[in-house]
Specification:
heterodimer, A: alpha/beta, VC0802-like, Rossmann fold, 2 domains, nine-stranded mixed sheet, 39% helix, elongated, B: alpha/beta, Aspartate Aminotransferase, domain 2, Aspartate Aminotransferase, domain 1, seven-stranded mixed sheet, globular
């Protein structure tokens, strides 16, 4: 069947009181931006729902797939639209809809009618009863259940007739752009793109930072992070990726600090730099893919010592997830295959064979003090030489 | 300065090669199988290419099959010869330093029930001929040994190998992967006793995606592809006319003044090895081939050195690629007995006649500057 429209269901937005219209406007804008390449569509708000009217031919699968990547959408209902206004044709349309929309006609149902056109000569209840009866006659194995129907056949009488019943799940969450902006630390691994996705899902716009350390990390590793940002951008919209050249800082740490503390101290500097970039770019938080206990720098002790340098909140949505749970999300959102490409980083030079797992803040601060006098200039240089890359969704 | 020392990976297409490719793409674009004049024109390029290769190899045009490159040529030779001759025996002999397109094809044959014997190599990357000789018996249908090893540049005595194979079993076929040797050495497979020989265009300033397999007259191989029966049925599929025309021009180019060019390339290689081994803890494992140098920089991971050189416009290859997750250690370096640090610290420099002494000097100087710094930052 060729659907001429989609009705978009959203849940949480509806609970946002007076700000509701703001949320709806942003959702409409996000939908528009995402689907405009796929055809000529009109997106409109109407009585707590959003309708997308197709005004040209389009590819159904492509549009559904695009809509399923827009946070804030809970369900997508493909709608049959006809020019019908008289009741006799309406009977015919509803039967034709049910015939085409379902392969098997053995479910329980009810008809739920709304009249926007109040001049229509029958009440909603009357229409429900009549159409229900028609469907039972047309499909003898259907049965009516008004309390817990398996399918609700929605009929809306407007200038045109809208019929829909199938709900395709959306990604849920809140529209990106309704909840501030975050700076995600992307490493090229599995966890950080998932973290960026999860925070964006709550409506947070995303920028990202990557620490490039040539010659210890390769151009391919950088390209991989750019690709990952592009994949996350399918959900978040274009991501500005800030590439920081971290080599000199890494080498200074290596030269001056105990080897088993390198990773912790490196991460503290990464957070410091990410925060600087966050503030410069109007982000209210930073986002990392850390998960308790995954590696030595992610023990609770290490996390505390790393966290100590932050002044903005650091959001770590993967914190309580097992590796497999993170992998499952990565596979679902399509970043996994890219994340496991083998040039993750050549940074192993800077990983100690026996890193500390219970670092003491005082000890780490003492080690860092040895960098005073050199590190300030290096930090400034790193921040001044940031390369910003726009990572767009390729869809 | 830019210095491309990765010519064993691929080479720049020569302008005269690019020209003929362009010509066959936009002007003489016919299908060689078409009956009309356009088809005939295209077919002429294929025929001419066969003639050129036949002349350089002192073979017959009918003994050449055009393929999609070295990998296909090696697969077609190894799998095709094994499948076509399995009634004579089930044993395949190959070496531990072969290119993956030979060793993985042999693995596939062993899955099919063939017995695959792999012959080891010494520290210099030379296949052990005594063991090889012992391995060839009445059941052996194919021996596959490469001419020039792609990672080390070691050269196998293929004529000697051919002789000892035929002494053991005249029916045993001998395949030579000459992808790194063609254009560097004059090779006459028929005179040498080679039955099958693979070559590739993009190692000799030709395009990627085209190569050839020499199949000595009356040697039976089973095709990998089935279809329209082009190339006497050994390799169905419309001929890659632009690629084949490009291969032909590249082959002619490589074989003209080859001795002079290779003497020059060998000189560059010597200059590099001399320069680099003057530094402390730098070791050469380079073989005899004029264009390949294999150098170990102890205490520096090869990928780090590679990327440091890349930043300075110098392009080389790492025998082993490693990452924090997976270690892909070169099987060739392992086979010649390298261990530990040497396995992870070896780079390949491969030359072409378009490299210069200045480039080599630049690389030597750059590495001299880099070594102390890079050696400082090691995992503790």
């Amino acid at each position: 069947m060729e659907y001429k429209a989609f009705m978009i269901k959203y849940a949480e937005i509806g609970t946002k009181g007076k700000n509701r219209y703001l949320f709806e406007d942003i959702l409409c804008k996000n939908i528009n931006r995402k689907i405009k390449k796929l055809g000529d569509f009109r997106v409109r708000k109407e009585q707590g729902r959003i309708f997308i009217d197709a005004q040209s031919d389009y590819d159904y699968e492509d549009v559904i797939s695009a809509l399923q990547k827009i946070f804030g959408i809970v369900g997508i209902c493909p709608v049959m639209v006809t020019e019908t206004t008289d009741f006799e044709s309406m009977r015919h349309d509803v039967i034709s809809y049910v015939k085409q929309a379902y392969d098997r006609h053995t479910f329980t149902f009810k008809v739920d009618t709304r009249r926007n056109d109040k001049t229509f000569p029958m009440t909603s209840m009357e229409v429900n009863a009549e159409l229900g009866h028609d469907l039972l006659v047309a499909f003898p194995e259907l049965s009516v259940d008004v309390h817990q129907p398996q399918e609700i056949i929605h009929v809306e009488i407007r200038r045109q007739l809208y019929i829909y019943s199938i709900i395709i799940p959306g990604p849920g969450g809140l529209p990106v752009g309704t909840n501030g902006k975050g700076m995600a630390l992307l490493s090229g691994g599995i966890d950080s793109p998932v973290a960026a996705y999860m925070i964006a899902k709550r409506g947070v716009e995303m920028e990202a930072v990557y620490f490039h350390a040539p010659p210890f990390t390769s151009e391919r590793a950088k390209k991989k992070v750019i690709d990952l940002a592009g994949l996350v951008a399918d959900y978040t919209g274009t991501i500005r990726l800030h590439v920081v050249n971290f080599s000199d800082i890494q080498m200074a740490i290596y030269d001056n600090c105990p080897h088993e503390e390198l990773t912790i101290i490196m991460k503290r500097f990464m957070i410091r730099i990410a925060e600087e970039l966050a503030k410069k770019n109007d982000c209210q938080c930073t986002v990392t893919g850390e998960s308790i206990g995954q590696v030595s720098s992610q023990t609770v002790f290490s996390l505390c010592v790393i966290n100590d340098v932050s002044t903005l909140p650091v959001f770590r949505p993967c914190i309580g997830l097992d590796k497999q749970e993170i992998v499952d999300i990565a596979e679902k959102i399509g970043t996994y295959e890219t994340s496991i490409l083998p040039y993750e980083d050549c940074c192993t030079t800077f990983v100690a064979k026996h890193p500390v797992t219970r670092p003491a803040l005082s000890a780490i601060e003492k080690s860092e003090a040895k960098l005073q006098g050199t590190i300030e200039e290096l930090l400034q240089k790193a921040l001044e030489s940031v390369e910003t890359i726009l990572c767009r969704s390729r869809e | 300065m830019e210095a491309y020392f990765d010519n064993a990976a691929t080479t720049r297409v020569a302008p005269e090669v690019a020209e003929v490719i362009m010509q066959t793409m936009i002007k003489d674009y016919g299908n060689p199988s078409s009956l009309h004049i356009k088809g005939m024109e295209a077919d002429a390029y294929v025929k001419h290419a066969a003639e050129v290769l036949a002349k350089e190899l002192k073979a017959d045009e009918k003994e050449l099959v055009f393929t999609s490159g070295g990998t296909e040529s090696n697969n077609l030779a190894v799998i095709g010869a094994a499948l076509a001759n399995q009634r004579n025996g089930k044993k395949i002999v190959t070496s531990a330093i072969e290119h993956a397109s030979v060793s993985a094809a042999a693995d596939y044959l062993s899955e099919l029930g063939f017995q695959v014997v792999t012959i080891g190599a010494d520290k210099q990357g030379h296949v052990d001929l005594d063991t090889l000789k012992q391995a060839v018996d009445t059941d052996t249908i194919l021996v596959s040994v490469m001419y020039v090893n792609n990672e080390l540049g070691s050269v196998q005595p293929v004529a000697e190998i051919a002789k000892l194979i035929k002494e053991q079993n005249p029916k045993t076929l001998f395949h030579v992967d000459a992808v790194q040797a063609f254009g560097k050495y004059r090779i006459y497979p028929k005179r040498t006793g080679i039955d099958l020989m693979s070559i590739s265009a993009h190692k000799i300033h030709g395009p990627k995606g085209v190569g050839a397999l020499f199949v000595r007259d009356r040697v039976k191989i089973k095709p990998l592809f089935y279809g329209g029966g082009q190339q006497t049925g050994i390799r169905s599929g419309t001929e890659n006319v632009p690629g084949i025309a490009g291969l032909s021009v590249a082959a002619k180019l490589a074989c003209s003044d080859m001795e002079e060019k290779m003497a020059y390339v060998a000189h560059l290689k010597e200059q590099l090895i001399r320069g680099l081994t003057a530094f402390e803890n730098v070791e050469s494992h380079s073989g005899e081939a004029p264009h390949i140098a294999s150098i170990t920089f102890h205490g520096v991971r090869s990928e780090v050195m590679l990327h440091a050189l890349e930043e300075r416009g110098i392009y080389v290859s790492a025998g082993s690629a490693c990452s924090s997750h997976k270690k892909a250690v070169s099987s060739v370096l392992k086979a010649i007995g390298l261990t530990g640090d040497s396995l992870e610290s070896t780079l390949r420099f491969s030359f072409s006649y378009d490299n210069t002494e200045e480039q080599v000097q630049y690389a030597v100087d750059t590495i001299g500057e880099l070594l102390p710094t890079l050696r400082k930052y090691v995992r503790k």
